[in-house]
């Protein structure tokens, strides 16, 4: 996933007491302090990570396809090239995640398959009807995925975490989408109302497909609620979804799309 | 463009007398011996190269879009990923060509625009109706483009030639297409007849769109027939098309698609 601009950062970054003795973040504990070889000895943790990598890999491949498709709606060759660039970046993320699955001895296709229906469903339900809807979707999808990657990273062993953060911390391609959408709203303010509805629908579909995945995939869900990590209770996954939704709402307001 | 496998090489590679004194190829003469700064002083040569880079750049961008679209027809996730990989490679070729246009002070969009109609026309006329047609198109398109890049490279100044050959000499992505098509024909030989017709249609459309470009773009055509390069007469461009067509026919036979 591509990174957000710094002003997009969700406001739940870990806070440390800023005293003179607290210059470094607290050392990781539990799973986060282990490397892959150690953590993967727990078969449930291993299954959860395979699920996660499979879901992220197919998510990137599906995003590639959608962005390439939406590039056709571009009004200019420059815009087309920008969306194609985002698509190509997603493909490279896909490659890294797929290669990691192969590295740990998993068949990438088998790891991705459980998530095909939910992700294809999301994209089918949210096919943009025009260029601006496509841009808002690219930006929203990018941002939500970044938030999710950051959230999940803290529950991972050090090797998997490094991969997830590397894929996330690529570049901020979505900035151009923001510029274009803002300019369109400035030119015709009524466009903003329509796009605000669209952004709400995107978030609604994303949440409903996530629910489906959480309900289907035991190992992954258990990891998300902290069952095999440390210090998370059942309410934690609900809070995570709330934080992601809130960050989304703030970004939409900043974009001129009042919810 | 991606390179062909060595067995695919057209048989018109320059031959040198293989005597003991002839260990190196003859030194380039004329334009081919000049760098960009020198060659571009001729405004007609400059216009021809801008045309060429614009045509190649939009060709790569359009190929990206088509391959990404055709990836949807893939029967498996692995096949989808392979086609997405080819698409992503085309996007990177596009980026190099576009950046070169910007480097020499040309507006990339303006350089590409004259070729949009012909390339979009080609893709519209040859939208594959299924996965195998998509694969044959990917392979044929890749190979014809490689042949054309090689042919045109010898008429270019050293800097432009290096770029064109670098874009060409990327990797042989099309090998997987060949494997898949061969397996499908082995499994059901009648498929071969249908795909042979399809390959002929692809070549026909490619030639007819090329004619259109040649008729429209004076500077580019003059370069192709040798007007601003050296040692080529008017018949040469016809011979070039013949060589490309012949190489195509040989490749199709090797693939089990008798013309």
Brief synopsis:
The first copy, chain A, has helices spanning 36-39, 43-70, 77-103, 108-112, 116-125, 131-153, 158-168, 175-187, 190-216, 218-224, 235-254. Helices cover 68% and strands 0% of the residues of chain A. The A-B interface holds A 58, 61, 64-65, 68-69, 71-72, 76-78, 80-81, 84-85, 87-88, 91-92, 94-95, 98, 108-109, 112-113, 116 and B 58, 61, 64-65, 68-69, 71-72, 76-78, 80-81, 84-85, 87-88, 91-92, 94-95, 98, 108-109, 112-113, 116.
Secondary-structure blueprint:
The structure is a homodimer of 259-residue chains.
Chain A: H1 36-39, H2 43-70, H3 77-103, H4 108-112, H5 116-125, H6 131-153, H7 158-168, H8 175-187, H9 190-216, H10 218-224, H11 235-254
Helix pairs in contact in A: 2-3, 2-5, 2-10, 5-9, 6-7, 6-8, 6-9, 6-11, 9-11
Give structural notes.
- 2 copies of one chain form a homodimer.
- Chain A is mainly alpha-helical.
- Chain A has helices spanning 36-39, 43-70, 77-103, 108-112, 116-125, 131-153, 158-168, 175-187, 190-216, 218-224, 235-254.
- Helix content of chain A is 68%, strand content 0%.
| Most residues in contact, chain pair and counts | A-B, 27 and 27 residues
**Number of separate structural domains of chain A:** 1
Structural class of chain A: mainly alpha
CATH superfamily of chain A: Ferritin, core subunit, four-helix bundle
CATH topology tier name of chain A: Ferritin
InterPro entries (chains A, B): Ferritin-like (IPR012347), Ferritin-like_SF (IPR009078), Ferritin_actino (IPR059125)
Region (Disordered) (chains A, B): 1-29
Biased composition (Low complexity) (chains A, B): 15-29
Pfam family, one (chains A, B): MiaE_2
